[in-house]
User: Fold these one by one.
Assistant:
Number 1:
Amino acid sequence: MNALGRKRTFTENLILQVDAALKTLANSAVATRPNPAQSPNPALTAREKRLSAQCMRVNHAGEVAAQGLYQGQALSARNLAVREKMQQAAIEEVDHLAWCETRLIELNSHTSYLALFWYTGSFMIGAIAGLIGDKWSLGFVAETEHQVMAHLNSHLDCLPAIDTRSREIIEMMYEDEARHATNAITAGAASLPGPVATLMRLMAKVMTTTARWV
Ligand SMILES: [Fe+2]
Ligand SMILES: [Fe+2]
């Protein structure tokens, strides 16, 4: 629904998509919730800073991809309730984007230079999933969120132990992603065929390996 309480037109939806894409790619995400990183900034060595920045850049790239996926699905989802759920989830993911961006700035580092590529690739996958049908679209969300949760867990293992600020962000993101996955399953997500889930894991591997460096 738009601010006038009527169903959004295709043009209004398209404008929202473009707005979301520009905000994501221009690194100008604004969080609506307080940053969970509340600990003082730890004194990291140059090596620890580099390691933390690599993890947070991968997380940020994942959030850029999540934006693309959700916006693509919101564009092509058939059911209005599903479309609005996708848009709501995308809004929540904006917090993750903003928190990762802030942490990367604190670490004197940068977001992935390939953000446009991560966004457009995921947008197309999301739009196709939405066209195939809402239960498959929701299935993509559940699978994506489960894979993101596994990544976030692995980052908690590899981050420098004293980087509590990055840890606080990742822990909050993990909680949110778990809720997104549960919501998708409750809304009727179909379980994806094994080869599709494997292909998604492969694509995620390409992104996480590349975004670590560029
Ligand atoms: Fe997220
Ligand atoms: Fe999520």
Number 2:
Amino acid sequence: MTIAIVSDIHSNWEALTVVLEHCDRLGVKEIRCLGDVIGYGPDPVAVTDMAMNRFSVSLLGNHEEALVTGKHRFNPYAAQAIDWTRAQLHSGSGITRIFSNKGTNQDRMPWYRERKPFELIDRHLMVHGSIYDPVHDYVDEPENPVEAEQMIETLEQDFSGFDICFAGHNHTPFMATKVGTFFPHDAHNSFVIPKGHKAYVCVGSVGQPRDNDPRASFATIDGERITFHRLRYDVPTTQKKIIDVGLHEFLAERLGEGI
Ligand SMILES: [Fe+2]
């Protein structure tokens, strides 16, 4: 059974719909989301409604936490966007009405207050951040032999009760294992992790990739095989919406560059 793991959609309707259409083509049976459904982007209501309807798991990311608590250490662009998002979700006034069984005036905030920081299913741990802090911490790719050794220690000592940890938050797709760190690319995007082996799988970001590749990123798992996917979407439309709703132009510009 193919399961999709998505993360960091950040209210990007154009990116999300391209990913969902591709999941349908792949015969994906279940979609799990690692958090940050909202924030930064211009379509929080439509994206929230889709998340509520399509995701079997949707975790608490740091943007969901900021949304419901009002507490964060965001830069001014992210702070403005989360305050704007909160107002949109309270009123329900969305650009797109997706599901006929939900009125546009529905308050989506109660759904966000119920989000959990992690989920464990079949020896797969799902977090937004890392195993040490599932909401805020970043999984950084090892950049030198010392960091690589530390990552292996983490996998061997701290991955107990689960084998694979799926993480988001860093907006960069890669996989860290005992034998090395792998950055997927178009010519090599599928990996087998034998049963019982430990791995961090960072799935990248659907709606705001930061690895200098603007295409939407997510992963699928089918048995022992993990496949990373990159998909083009209509970036100019999302950029225009960001400007039109009054969010900062930097949030639009970065989508075009994948930064
Ligand atoms: Fe994020």
